[in-house]
């Protein structure tokens, strides 16, 4: 071992040390300088280690370093190298070699490090020798490098090297030895990495030495890689012997996620032609084959051009025999791949195919560019085979899947991979290939029996049009155009909407690109299909939208403008289409028309229609911030907010007022979307202008009423208000302006804090400084006292007040001291409001504003204490401490306990408190919804409100136990019902914040509330009804709206957006009734409130709950009582709950229970209305399965009622009619079913499967035959039933005739006897 070290140390010292060091001293070796040595490119004397190393290599590169010197150099190097290799001195010691001898281990490790450096020196010298043979100097070295150098320079140097002498044999021997060490070095590095992770403290020096040797071995490997690459790129003799380990190692390093670099991929790509030498039929190559296929899905290979070039070359190896494997690996990655990955695969396929055609070869930079005739012929033949293999095994398979894939996303991805060929279809070679490969597939796909295949084939036809053979000439082109037009006409007339829509899109793409190529008659035919047929296709909104999109595509071609100018108004009528998809397509088309010179979008759709459409986008189920509303707002932005150097704020204000007066609803939607097309500074200026207009209108109205205007005059100078005098003020317009200010402010609130919007922030601060909001708020609040105002004007004032309070919530409380004081005064005066006004008052925005200003704790405690005091019967004395705390003048508290603070709070009227809580839970306003979220997130606030509302249960129990009149105060019953409803909804809101609403589970509190109703409230009401019938004449129509739960069911949306307190559910009519009915009204209110809560919980959860439905079934016993008032109060809610259960789970058990409970009821007119609304909701179901379940349930209920009736009437000699058997109530249900065509058919379908010869079945069939509207399907079932009856009658007649004949025969025999 010592001899090998001595033989290699001089060379190592010469390369890496700047002075002679001790034999045993390795500390002066600068590893960092070694790793950076190749980066030093300075010319000059060898003053540094790297400089001297370059000088030594330049000597070897120099032409004066002749072959004899090279032989001596590499001969001596080979002898030393052989000793190092034979003794395996380049490997670090194993644990068994040195046992626990630390000195021995250090010596062996130092030897291994010295040997690793020696291997790197040898590789660099061999590489320098090769560079000298190719011309010497660093330019030659660059010519042997990777793909980043100049390709022309490399080709020149390789061409000049051809025909010259090869490297000396000794250099080849050294290179072969070094090449054969690549795998051993790799294994040694892996073993060293595993040993360096050990934690043996006794040999702590080992991990450091192992890591140092691993770095040196990696450097030596890299030098050997460079030497082998230089030998390969220089096309020296026996170069194929120096890549057998190079390629696999580079491949493994490129795929190593932890250690790979992009340079490894570049190196692998530079020697990719070495893969052609591999024998892929050999079984031993299976591991290498697997690694090669892994590159197909590796992100680094797909990201860099060299990686894509390498993967593309895999399609060319082994004469195309590897194509199927590579394509299979790529095809497995295509489904679900991102667009960037698909583009990479497109580059790979396109580059490989072009290389196979000989137009450009992947890796031609590795060749000389000169071949003899025999080589050219052989290469052409091989390339032809590879091209055929790529087209047949890869491209045609992608084309097939682009049309026939089972998944639409897979088909779309396959088309994306082929898109590179479609884009370059104007090339003759590409066009010929598309004709060869698509020809057998496309025309059959257009006639496929599968509609999806036909639709995808239309898209492919547009991608490849004209699919022709470039050698066929004009006649062939005309034939292809004619055939394509026929296919398009057939597709646009297809019976499947998907195919018709695809046909429109394909037609537009083809006409837009080849307008001059297609005959005029064919253009007329195709346009007629799009404009006249598809645009008015009533069966499918997708077809109508596709027609509008097709027109938009065609408008991009200038030559189509003259054709479409008179046709566009008919397309513009679709702006009011029922489908938002069609409306969006029309608006996008108008945005395109807006950019076309000589065409005006308001000539296509009049301006009043656009405003009406914009206003309608904010109504109903339409989303005011949806894509249609945003696009319309963008379309009208220049009309109502013009931009330009000549535009003044006066112009903007005048246009804004015009918009507000013409269509205030459109203005609101316009403002909601302003932030999507206007800058923050522009919106802040618009807010300033609108605020000044609002103040001007308020001043004008105050002056008309001879009121003081000095406060607003100081805030808004007279000069600034002159520009607003063109408008006509009204309460509605002022409310809309206030709402617009808030909407605009809300749209830029998050962006105002950015540094680039500092100017906008200053503008907002200047506008809302002073008492502007306070003065405007006072003006609208004072208008409520005007008894001459109509309901519409009151609603407008409420809108304005809410909008102003919302704007104030955007400011800090210190900037609105007067407004805060005014709000507190309103709360203090709530006791003085008339009873009627207190019941409808909505002070939730005021409360939300106070909470926004940091008074959350005080507000919650005030509400909780007021509710608790009312239901517990405590004193109701107002206190001013809450007022003083709000206004900022609170004194130092003398008691620190929490209870003491609650006692000192202001006590509000119970109507005001419940109204505030109800509207907060309902989320009537954005501020109220925000306060609701804050209460749910605060455990303290939630616990305070919930515990206060829960006291209503105790109050209700006291009333039910007493069973006496409470001075006739039915207001208490109303308050109990609302409080219990709010309590249940508060628990539901809290429950909904714990996760997905569809996976909600009942909390213990909710279960307790339901059990309380069934175990306490229901038995109490049953006993009350059994005692007397005092409630019979009670009108409780105000407790619930009979039509509300059925005709307008609560939508299954998010719980946070649900309506918890409905203003229609007023109980004022009870205030003038008898004193003896308070207890019963209380019970009815409590039961109704809880049923309503859990009905909505089921509808929002959209999954049935056995516990809830079971408890609801227990409540159905209340419907069996003879008291019509109880039924009128509870039956709508129970019907509503039963319909919800039927909708979400197809569970008709509760519905069946409700019908059976009311079987003996003689319905009044109002009860008949309840049945009508309930059955209308059932029969309106779109799901035929659910409707069929309902029909089967009606048959079961009818059978049960008939069976019970027959049991009770066994003694009767005459059979009653069917209507009398089932009762008047059930007959109303069946009568409603028989009035509908669809329900009658489903009822008949359910009956036909029932057992034959059953009385109920026959009776219902007779009613169907006599009463239901007839359809072909129903008539077919009735004929079948009639034939069954005819056959039965025939059999019965034959049976009777036989019996009569037997009787006659017996009678004759008796006479004869």
From TrEMBL:
Superkingdom: Eukaryota
TM stretches of this protein: none
Coiled coil: none
Renumbered ranges of HEAT repeats: 567-603
Comp. bias regions, Acidic residues: 23-38
Disordered, as annotated region: 20-54, 1291-1313
Biased composition (Basic and acidic residues): 1294-1313
InterPro entries on file: ARM-like, ARM-type_fold, Condensin2_G2, HEAT_type_2
Name by which UniProt lists this protein: Condensin complex subunit 1
Protein species of origin: Stephanodiscus triporus
């Amino acid at each position: 071992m010592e001899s090998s070290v001595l033989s290699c140390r001089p060379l190592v010292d010469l390369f890496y040390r700047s002075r002679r060091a001790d034999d045993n001293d390795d500390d002066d070796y600068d590893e960092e300088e070694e790793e950076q040595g190749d980066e030093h490119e300075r010319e000059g004397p060898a003053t540094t280690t790297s400089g001297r190393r370059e000088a030594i290599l330049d000597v070897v590169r120099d032409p004066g370093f002749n072959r004899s010197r090279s032989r001596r150099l590499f001969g001596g190097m080979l002898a030393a190298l052989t000793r190092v290799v034979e003794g395996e001195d380049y490997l670090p010691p194993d644990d068994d070699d040195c046992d626990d001898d630390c000195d021995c281990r250090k010596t062996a490790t130092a030897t291994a490090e010295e040997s690793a450096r020696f291997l790197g020196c040898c590789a660099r010298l061999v590489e320098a020798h090769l560079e000298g043979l190719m011309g010497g100097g660093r330019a030659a070295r660059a010519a042997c490098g990777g793909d980043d150098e100049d390709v022309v320079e490399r080709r020149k140097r390789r061409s000049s090297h051809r025909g010259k002498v090869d490297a000396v044999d000794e250099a080849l021997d050294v290179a072969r030895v070094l090449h054969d060490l690549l795998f051993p070095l790799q294994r040694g590095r892996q073993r060293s990495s595993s040993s360096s992770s050990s934690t043996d403290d006794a040999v702590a020096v080992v991990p450091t030495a192992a890591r140092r040797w691993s770095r040196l071995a990696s450097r030596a490997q890299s030098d050997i890689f460079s030497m082998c690459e230089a030998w390969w790129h220089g096309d020296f003799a026996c170069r194929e012997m120096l890549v057998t380990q190079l390629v696999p190692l580079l491949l493994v390093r490129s795929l190593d996620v932890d250690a790979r670099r992009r340079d490894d991929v570049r190196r692998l790509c530079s020697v990719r032609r070495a893969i052609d030498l591999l024998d892929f039929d050999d079984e031993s190559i299976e591991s290498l084959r697997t690694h090669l296929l892994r590159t197909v899905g590796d992100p680094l290979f797909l990201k860099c051009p060299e990686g894509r070039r390498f993967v593309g070359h895999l399609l060319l190896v082994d004469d195309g025999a590897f194509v199927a494997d590579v394509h299979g690996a790529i095809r497995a990655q295509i489904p679900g791949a991102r667009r960037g990955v698909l583009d990479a695969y497109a580059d790979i396929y396109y580059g490989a195919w072009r290389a196979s055609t000989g137009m450009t070869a992947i890796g031609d930079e590795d060749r000389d560019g000169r071949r003899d005739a025999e080589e050219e012929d052989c290469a052409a033949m091989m390339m032809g085979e590879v091209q055929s293999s790529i087209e047949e095994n890869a491209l045609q398979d992608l084309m097939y899947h682009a049309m026939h894939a089972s998944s639409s996303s897979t088909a779309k991805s396959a088309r994306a991979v082929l898109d590179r060929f479609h884009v370059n279809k104007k090339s003759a070679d590409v066009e010929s290939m598309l004709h060869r490969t698509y020809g057998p597939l496309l025309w059959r796909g257009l006639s496929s029996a599968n509609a999806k295949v036909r639709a995808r084939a239309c898209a492919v036809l547009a991608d490849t049009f004209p699919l022709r053979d470039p050698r066929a000439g004009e006649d062939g082109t005309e034939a292809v155009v004619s055939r394509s037009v026929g296919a398009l006409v057939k597709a646009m007339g297809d019976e499947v909407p998907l195919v018709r829509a695809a046909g429109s899109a394909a037609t537009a793409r083809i006409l837009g690109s080849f307008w001059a190529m297609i005959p005029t008659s064919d253009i007329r035919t195709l346009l007629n299909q799009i404009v006249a047929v598809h645009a008015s296709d009533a069966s499918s909104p997708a077809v109508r939208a596709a027609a509008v999109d097709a027109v938009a595509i065609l408008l991009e071609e200038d030559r189509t403008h003259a054709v479409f100018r008179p046709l566009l108004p008919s397309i513009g009528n679709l702006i009011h289409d029922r489908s938002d998809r069609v409306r969006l397509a029309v608006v996008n088309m108008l945005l395109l028309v807006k950019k076309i010179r000589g065409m005006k979008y308001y000539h296509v759709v009049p301006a009043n229609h656009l405003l009406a459409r914009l206003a309608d986008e904010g109504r109903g189920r339409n989303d005011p911030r949806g894509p249609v509303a945003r696009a319309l707002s963008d379309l009208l932005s220049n009309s109502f907010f013009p931009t330009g150097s000549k535009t003044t704020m006066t112009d903007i204000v005048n246009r804004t007022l015009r918009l507000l007066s013409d269509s205030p609803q459109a203005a609101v939607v316009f403002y909601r979307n302003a932030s999507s097309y206007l800058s923050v500074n522009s919106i802040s200026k618009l807010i300033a202008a609108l605020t000044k207009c609002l103040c001007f209108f308020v001043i004008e109205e105050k002056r008309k009423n001879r009121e003081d205007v000095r406060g607003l005059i100081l805030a808004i100078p007279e000069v600034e208000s002159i520009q607003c005098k063109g408008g006509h003020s009204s309460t509605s317009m002022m409310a809309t302006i206030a709402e617009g200010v808030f909407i605009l402010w809300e749209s830029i609130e998050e962006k105002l804090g950015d540094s680039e919007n500092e100017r906008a922030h200053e503008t907002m601060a200047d506008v809302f400084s002073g008492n502007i909001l306070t003065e405007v708020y006072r003006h609208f609040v004072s208008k409520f006292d005007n008894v001459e105002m109509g309901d519409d004007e009151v609603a407008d004032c409420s809108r304005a007040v809410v909008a102003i309070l919302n704007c104030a919530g955007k400011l800090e409380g210190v900037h609105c001291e007067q407004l805060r004081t005014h709000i507190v005064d309103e709360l203090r005066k709530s006791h003085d409001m008339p009873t009627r006004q207190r019941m409808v008052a909505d002070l939730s925005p005021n409360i939300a504003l106070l909470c926004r200003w940091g008074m959350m704790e005080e507000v919650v405690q005030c509400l909780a204490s007021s509710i608790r005091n009312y239901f517990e019967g405590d004193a109701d004395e107002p206190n001013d401490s809450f007022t003083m705390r709000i206004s900022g003048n609170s004194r130092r508290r003398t008691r620190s306990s929490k209870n003491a603070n609650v006692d000192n709070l202001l006590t509000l009227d119970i109507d005001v408190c419940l109204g505030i809580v109800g509207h907060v839970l309902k989320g009537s306003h954005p501020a109220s919804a925000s306060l609701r979220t804050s209460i749910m997130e605060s455990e303290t606030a939630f616990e305070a409100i919930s515990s206060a509302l829960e006291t209503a249960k105790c109050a209700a129990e006291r009333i039910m136990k007493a069973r006496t009149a409470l001075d006739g105060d039915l207001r208490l019953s109303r308050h109990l019902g609302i409080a219990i409803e709010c309590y249940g909804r508060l628990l539901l809101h809290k429950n909904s914040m714990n996760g997905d609403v569809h996976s909600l589970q009942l909390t213990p509190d909710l279960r307790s509330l339901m059990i309380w109703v069934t175990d306490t409230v229901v038995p109490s009401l049953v006993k009350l009804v059994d005692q007397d019938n005092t409630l019979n004449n009670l009108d409780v129509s105000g407790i619930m709206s009979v039509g509300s739960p059925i005709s307008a069911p609560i939508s299954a949306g998010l719980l946070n957006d649900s309506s918890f307190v409905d203003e229609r559910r007023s109980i004022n009519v009870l205030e003038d009734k008898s004193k003896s009915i308070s207890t019963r009204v209380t019970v009815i209110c409590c039961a109704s409130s809880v049923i309503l809560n859990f009905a909505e919980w089921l509808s929002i959860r959209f999954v049935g709950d056995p516990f809830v439905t079971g408890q609801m079934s227990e409540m159905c016993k209340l419907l069996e009582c003879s008291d019509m008032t109880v039924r009128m109060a509870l039956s709508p809610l129970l019907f509503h709950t039963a319909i919800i259960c039927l909708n979400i789970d197809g569970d008709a058990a509760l519905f069946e229970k409700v019908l059976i409970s009311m079987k003996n009821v003689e319905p009044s007119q109002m009860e008949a209305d309840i049945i009508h609304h309930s059955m209308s909701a059932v029969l309106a179901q779109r799901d035929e399965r659910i409707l069929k379940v309902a029909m089967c349930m009606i048959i079961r209920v009818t059978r049960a009622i008939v069976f019970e009736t027959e049991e009770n009437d066994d003694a009767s000699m005459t059979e009653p009619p069917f209507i009398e058997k089932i009762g008047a109530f059930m007959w109303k249900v069946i009568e409603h079913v028989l009035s509908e065509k669809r329900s009658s058919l489903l009822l008949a379908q359910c009956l036909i499967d029932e057992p034959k010869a059953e009385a109920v079945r026959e009776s219902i069939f007779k009613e169907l035959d006599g009463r239901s509207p007839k359809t072909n399907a129903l008539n077919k079932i009735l004929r079948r039933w009639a034939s069954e009856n005819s056959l039965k009658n025939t059999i019965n007649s034959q049976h009777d005739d036989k019996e009569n004949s037997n009787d006659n025969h017996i009678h004759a025999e008796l006479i004869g006897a």
